[in-house]
Fold:
Amino acid sequence: MIELNINGKPYTVDVPPMKRLLDVLREDLHLTGVKEGCGEGECGSCSVLFDGVLANSCLIPVLQAEGVEIGTIEGVAIGEQLAPIQQCFLEEGGAQCGICTPGMILATKHLLDKYPQPTLPQIQEGLAGNLCRCTGYSRIFAAVEAAAKLA
Amino acid sequence: MRANAAQYELIAPATLDDVLATLATGGYTPIAGGTEIMVALSAGRLPQKPLVSLQHLKELRFIETTAEAYVIGAGTTFSDIRHHAGLAADLPLLAGAASWTGSIANQNRGTLGGNLVNASPAADSPPALLAYEATLKLVSATGSRTMPYTAFHLGYKKTALLPGELVYSIAVPRIWTGYRSYTRKVGTRNAQAISKIALACLARIEENKIADIRIGAASLSAMPMRCAATESALLGQPVTSQTVEKARAALASEARPIDDIRSTAAYRAAVAGNLLEEFLQQLST
Ligand SMILES: Cc1cc2nc3c(=O)[nH]c(=O)nc-3n(C[C@H](O)[C@H](O)[C@H](O)COP(=O)(O)OP(=O)(O)OC[C@H]3O[C@@H](n4cnc5c(N)ncnc54)[C@H](O)[C@@H]3O)c2cc1C
Ligand code: FES
Ligand code: FES
Structure:
C-alpha cells in the first residue's frame, strides 16, 4: 500500500512501486487532467507539482511520490471557479485541443511562484519543457503575461 | 514496447546506511531522479533488476561551502545548483551546464550524481567538472574512497564505480579567481536537446601568455574528455593566430568523435574547433 497526498487530500493505492505516477493518477485515481504525450520527459503534458516544483509524472515511480505533496490541474481551480491563470488561458486563446494545457498551466504556476513578473525569456525558459502542437506559443505567452499582470 | 512496471521491485530504505546495506547484497540498481532510468523503463530497455531509491535521502542532497571547495551531494538537483548563489558566482561552467540540462522539470528532478554515473559522452556537467578538476567521494557498506574525477570515466558508459558503491559527493576547488571561463553547448534545440558538442574552458593569462588552461569536452570521444594535447599546445603561448591554428590542429588530432543519430564525426570536430577558436578570441580581448 502506498499513501499519497494529492491536492491536499490523502489517498491509499495498492499498485506496484515502479508504476509511473502518471498511470496511477489516471488509471487508479481517475485524475485524468494529467496527460501522456511522449512518455519520455520531453513534452510536459504529464506535468505535476511535486512538493511545489514542476516535474514530469511519466518519469516518477509512484513509490517516490510517497510523503510528497502532489499538485495536479484538478487542484488549481477554486471550487467551481477558474483560477486566474486558467481564466487568462481561456481569454487569451491559450488553449485549443487542451492536451498540453494542464501542463502549461502548472508550468505557469511554477514560473509565477518563482518570478511573479517574468521577462519574456523567463517565460520561454519556464515553458520550454511543455510542447504544444496546436495553439501556437505566442498566445500561450500572452496568457502567461496576462496572468502575471493580475498577480 | 514499454516494460510492465509490475515486473520491477523498488524499495526506499530510510537512511543512506540502509541503502548501502541493500546495495551490498548485490543485484540492486540505484534510482535517484529517475530521468534516465524511467526513460529506459518506458523504452523497454531497463534490465529487470530490483531498484533502490536514493531520491528521498537528505544525506545526499546538500551544497557545502568551505574555504577551499564546494562540496556537492550526489543527490543535488540541477535546479539546486543553478539557484545557489555561490556556485553561480564562482563556478559558472557548472551553473551554466545545470541551467541547460533539459527543461525546468528535468532540472527539478535530475541529479548531478545521476549525470556522472549515467556517463553519457554527451552529458553536460562532465566537461565543467573535468575543467575544474573535481574530486569524487564514493561510498559503500564497507567504507569510502576519494578519486580525481579525471580518473572516473573509463570508456563508453563505463566508470570506475564498483558494485555496491554510490557516488556520495563531488568536491570542486575554489581557486578560480583571475580565470576566464567559457562554455558553450551546440544542439538542435539549445538548452532542451542533448548536445552535439560542448566545451567548458578555463584559462589564466599572465603577461599576455596563457599561464594555465583547462578544456573539458562533451561528445568529442566515447566518454567525457579533458583535451590534454590541446592544453599543452596552448600552455605558455601568447594568443596569436598561429597559436589558434596549432591549438585547432591539436584538438583535431586528439578528438575521436562518433557518428550517431544526433550528428556526424566531421561536424563535431569542425564545430569543436570553432568553439575553441571563439574561446581563444575572447581571451585576446
Ligand atoms: C527530456 C530529457 C532531457 C534531458 N536533457 C539532458 C541534457 O540536456 N543534458 C544532460 O546531460 N542530460 C540530459 N538528460 C539526462 C538526465 O536528466 C541526466 O543525466 C540526469 O543527471 C540523470 O540524473 P537522475 O538523478 O535523474 O538519474 P537516474 O535516472 O536516477 O540514474 C541515472 C544512473 O545513475 C545511477 N545513479 C544515480 N545516482 C547515483 C549515485 N549517487 N551513485 C551511483 N549511481 C547513481 C543510476 O543507477 C543510473 O544508472 C535529459 C533527460 C531527459 C528525460
Ligand atoms: S508524457 Fe511525460 S513528458 Fe511527455
Ligand atoms: S492546445 Fe493542443 S497541444 Fe496545446
Remarks:
- The first strand of chain B starts at residue 10 and ends at 11.
- The mean pLDDT of chain B is 94.
- Chain B touches chain A at residues 2, 5-6, 8-12, 31, 33-35, 38-39, 41-43, 51, 53, 55-56, 79, 102-106, 108-109, 191-192 (CB under 8 Å).
- The two ends of chain B are 54 Å apart (CA to CA).
